[in-house]
Amino acid sequence: MSKIGFIGLGIMGAPMAANLLKGGHQLFVQQRKALPPQLVELGAAGCATAREVAEKADVIIMMVPDTPQVAEVLFDEGGVAQGLSAGKIVVDMSSISPIETKKFAARINALGCQYLDAPVSGGEVGAKAATLTIMVGGEEQAFNAVKPLFELMGKNITLVGGNGDGQTTKVANQIIVALNIEAVGEALLFASRMGADPAKVRQALMGGFAASRILEVHGERMIKRTFDPGFRIELHQKDLNLALSSARAIGVSLPNTATAQELFNTCAAHGGKAWDHSALVRALEIMANYEIGAILPE
Question: Are 222 and 281 in contact, with CB atoms under 8 Å apart?
């Protein structure tokens, strides 16, 4: 278990990999860009291909943007699958399609290896602080083997069920987050346009049944106009696309999720795809022709 592979060293992946190194593990890493200096200083060994990572490591972790990238890392020429030998464990910590995840797992299982889907919630702050929520799908034996690694990266770690269930949980998480952001945005916009101080309204609501982390953190962002990410709108759009496409596949209607996605689309159309997802409120403000906290003319 001391030989770990890590593929995908972006905003989330790099600090997650650093926490594994700080935990005393030998780390083999691969990405197309230059390796982050922090990981080099901590002793990470760079590999030319995903295949090389899989050959050298016992557990191979992936943290890449979306479903096509996971498929590429796993199964393209020079990919993880070509470097696997029986008994190894592949862990996908990206946020991707639950339906495709089940197919990926079956292909890895056919090679005599185990597969866990383990997407995370908590953003860059949680990745750096090793406080991520980790939602896992897969066999209990594989989960128990990898759990000590998860504990170096996160705090709330749950084996939800079989392969695909981790990704399903992450999609559910993103639905809840998006709809809560939308609700907080509507409430604060309404209160402000009615002439109330939105900061004091938020303070009052934090003591009641409407209190939430979204109201606490993103409500403050909306009032102070601090929309630097955070978690970018374009990433939340990707996650809601997963929700809506999966829902279509199983014949389920998600009307409010679809509305939240349209609001994100509005923000992106106004140059906001890289804004923090709390800036969904900007779409509501555009429709109202009013910004939270604006001073109305006499």
Answer: yes
User: Quick one: how far is CA 39 from the chain centroid?
Assistant: 21
Are the C-beta atoms of residues 7 and 46 closer than 8 Å to each other? Answer: no
Among 69, 67, 65, 49, smallest CA distance to 57 is for 49
CA distances from 185 to 198, 223, 224, 278 (A): 11, 10, 13, 8
Neighbour count for residue 13 (Cβ, 10 Å): 23
Of the candidates 256, 94, 72, which has an alpha carbon nearest to the alpha carbon of residue 182?
Answer: 256
- 79 vs 90: CA distance, rounded Å: 12
Per the structure block, which two tokens stand in for 59? 């557990």
- Residue range 266-276: mean pLDDT, rounded: 97
pLDDT over 90 for what percent of the chain? 92
Cα 254 to the chain's mean position, in Å?
Answer: 20
Residues catalogued as catalytic: 170
The pair of structure tokens assigned to 290 is 């009013």
CB 142 within 8 A of CB 162: no
C-alpha gyration radius of the chain: 21
Residue 17 backbone zone (phi > 0: left; psi -120 to 50: alpha; other: beta): alpha
Task: Give the SS3 label for residue 115.
Answer: strand
Element (H, E) at 286: helix 281-288
At 190 the three-state DSSP class reads helix
**Average pLDDT for 126-153:** 97
DSSP secondary structure of 198-210: HHHHHHHHTTSTT
- State the pLDDT at residue 158: 98
pLDDT tens, position by position, 198-215: 999 999 999 999 999 999
> CB-side exposure of 211: number of CA atoms within 13 Å?
6
pTM: 0.92
Cβ-based burial of 29 (10 A; exposed 0-12, middle 13-18, buried ≥19)? buried
Look at residue 1 in the predicted model and tell me its pLDDT.
54
